Amino acid sequence: MNSLKHAGAGMDRRYFLTASAAIGGGLVVSLATGPLGHVAAATPAATAFQPDASVTIGSDGLVSFTLPLVEMGQGTYTSIPMLIAEELEVPLSQVRIVHAPSNPKLFTNPLLGVQATGGSTAVRAAWEPMRKAGASARTMLVAAAARTWNVPPASCRATRATVVHTPTGRVLGYGALAQRAAKEAVPEQVELKAPSQYRLIGTPAKRLDLSGKVNGSAVFGIDVRLPGMKIAAVAACPVFGGKLASVDDTKARAVAGVRQIVKLDDAVAVIADHNGAARKGLAALQIQWDEGANAKFSTEVWAGQLKEASKGRGVSAAKIGNVDAALAAAAVKVQAEYWAPNLAHATLEPMNCTVHWRKTECEVWLGTQALARAQEGVSRVTGLPVDKVIVHNHLIGGGFGRRLDVDYVEQAALIARQVEGPVKVIWSREEDMQHDVYRPFWYDQLSAALDASGKPTAFRHRVIGSSVVARWIPAWMKDGLDPDAVDAAQSPYEFENIDVEYVRHEPPPPLTTGFWRGVGPTHNAFVVEGFIDELANAAKQDPMAFRRALLARQPRVMAVLDQVAQRSGWGTPLPARCGRGVALLAKESWESILAQVVEVQVGNDGLLTIKRITSALDCGQMINPDGVTAQVQGATVFGLTAALYGNITFKDGRVVQSNFHDYQMVRMNEVSPMDISLITNHEKPGGMGEIGTTLVAPALVNAIHAATGVRLRKLPIDTDLLKLT
Questions:
Q1: What are the tens digits of pLDDT across the range 455-485?
Q2: Where are the transmembrane segments (predicted)?
């Protein structure tokens, strides 16, 4: 998810703090963000205040941190505690994480305007507020120690969860000071450390959630166990928009362990004592579906609709100069069409949700990126007031934007309404693959003008596809423009004349498209960076040099491009049928810059071998460099999977793909060596969750062109086109 800075309009990072005595005698320092222009009074409270983030220091000295952002493998549960620990002067090992409850008033992500984790916003949203919370707690602990010793606070310093009186060497631990510190006035202003003073920020840190994931003690949504809990296996109509016509459950009810059959408008679920019985019972059902109006829908039909929609007028995303005049005067005109397919999320942990319906209230256990949205969804489908829906969040075994949607949560709630006691609904891999919320299917038209010297004078880009933003949060749309779909308008390249336009076309309802780890940029980077390469070829210029000429006033971006060129050996000779391709993304709303070079070898039989992937990254101030490197590695593999294999297709209203045999993942032996260069500076942190997915596809197709002369404008890569004939 990206371009979400638009959602934060009207929000800022100002904060207020309160302090109170925690249960058992400790210090609670609470922080909350508020709307622009609103900062609450900073006064001690008699009881703990539930905030955007709470730092609780117990009498045992342990620091508990209520984190309003979720952990789905990206390292949030390590990097954000590092911000607190840095300013609080405690070892990272002394921090304990607590999942935040659903409360959009208190836990709103200030960059999104909603309680959610996505859009590469976690560290960026936490950067200043979390450090201020830690610094405020430290200041209060020092003040409490100084008052205890009757000495000036300036003569005391905090270090490793203690306060030391420097002249005498006296020491008090945070645990001993916590209750007294809660009585201190909350500082109105705190001085944050300078980068030269950092002890944790910018240093490699071991993941705080790692041991639990290794020893099996970590609890994901799918791991929830409750007394008397039943398991539900579910089958929804394979044709989107279809309904359940009838079901013969005679054989299913005869399966040992099967307790109940639940029917919904568009699905049927088997409730059993355990997963095996539920699956066996589901397989025994004889189901008749009413396939409805979409039974003839297909990918080919959708592609035809996009083509037809492209004939209409769109909404302007960027307009500079006169593109039409520049194209008319061009020495060389270049035109191209690109296609980017629907993609599934294919998370390792399939969709699941546990619900206990009690008539007057409902309790829910799951892993979600949007806790409040899940709570609201259950309220909507059950008719219960929001405050009667209690939601417990857990670790997430892969989100990638899928768990920003709550369709599976609402379905589980509807099933649970008909079941006595708690029931865990687990989608099979097939159900998950064929009822996903897919990345949009996009069709792009591009044209550009070059003058006699090969300099580009005009650039036109028309994006045709559906709008995730319009469905997920309509308030982010402005004048019909989806800022995510047309993030190509944020390109760092400078053209005298620019025209970027968005033509919205939606598939037939209820088929919906959703956020997918990078969303707009994963499509736009492929299109724009592929087309920039085409312009370089038309101008008979080196693709790296061609890009540099368009970045003359972008020194920070240029430095990243130069770094990847140097590290990749750009320009050095390669054997026949080998090539290098480059791609660049400087994402304004992510505040990060990435360049990648992919080196390939293409056999005469079309066999594609990726020899090396080189990345250079400037994401501003790194919190945990190991986490940054891991993000680039994982996201690159994710993007490579999509480039080589990702393709969700429709036939007869159904998704054709069903599991990893026909929606393939990149295997370990297909992943090439990666050289990742991290550029160190102290600019404000940029987002890292998604940028790594965006560039491997365009760099790969550019490398293939360099090796073979074949220009690929459609994903996934068709290696049959690479064979020598």
A1: 999 999 999 999 999 999 999 999 999 999 9
A2: none
Mean pLDDT, rounded, for 622-648: 98
CB 504 within 8 Å of CB 468 = no
Q: Is residue 207 part of a domain?
A: no
CA distance 362 to 421: 11
* Residue after which a domain boundary falls, among 426, 458, 483: 426
- The C-alpha angle 110, 131, 676, rounded to 5 degrees, equals 85
Among 48-52, 55-59, 517-521, 618-622, whose mean pLDDT is lowest?
48-52
What is the Rg, in whole angstroms, of the alpha carbon atoms belonging to the chain?
A: 27
User: β-strand 162-165 against 592-602: which pairing, if any?
Assistant: unpaired
Same domain, 99 and 140: yes
Give the span between the Cα atoms of 59 and 326, in whole angstroms. Answer: 71
What distance in Å separates the CA atoms of residue 711 and residue 704, rounded to the nearest whole number?
Answer: 8
* Domain count of the fold of the chain: 3
Neighbours of 474 (CB within 10 A): 9
Same domain, 605 and 540: yes
CB atoms within 10 A of CB 680: 10
Side-chain-facing half-sphere of 560: CA atoms under 13 Å: 29
Long-range own/partner contacts, residues 474-483 (CB < 8 A, 24 or more apart): 475/7, 476/4, 476/6, 476/7, 478/6, 479/315, 480/315, 480/504, 481/315, 481/316, 481/317, 483/3, 483/6, 483/317
The Cα angle at residue 443 between residues 439 and 444, in degrees rounded to 5: 120
Q: Are 697 and 715 in contact, with CB atoms under 8 Å apart?
A: yes
| Any domain includes 704 | yes
pLDDT at residue 46 is higher than 70: no
Q: Is residue 361 part of a domain?
A: yes
Looking at the fold, whether 482 and 611 belong to one and the same domain comes out as yes
Residue where one domain finishes, among candidates 426, 446, 467:
426
Q: What is the mean pLDDT of residues 130-157?
A: 95
What CATH number did the domain enclosing 597 receive?
3.30.365.10
In whole angstroms, give the CA distance from residue 15 to residue 138.
17
Question: What length is written for the chain?
Answer: 725
Q: Within 10 Å of residue 549's Cβ, how many Cβ atoms?
A: 15
Are residues 287 and 369 located together in one domain of the fold? yes
Residue ranges making up the domain that contains 56: 4-201
Asked whether residue 262 is domain-assigned, the answer is yes
Are 162 and 172 in contact by the 8 Å Cβ rule? The answer is: yes
- Among residues 462, 441, 458, which one has the least CA distance to residue 311? 462
The candidate with the shortest Cα–Cα distance to 92, out of 101, 76, 104, 79, is 79
Of 432, 372, 440, which is closest to residue 397 (Cα–Cα)? 432
What's the DSSP call for residue 202? T
pTM of the model: 0.93
Does 182 share its domain with 52? yes
Residues forming a β-bridge with 655: 650
Residue 605 sits in the same domain as residue 663: yes
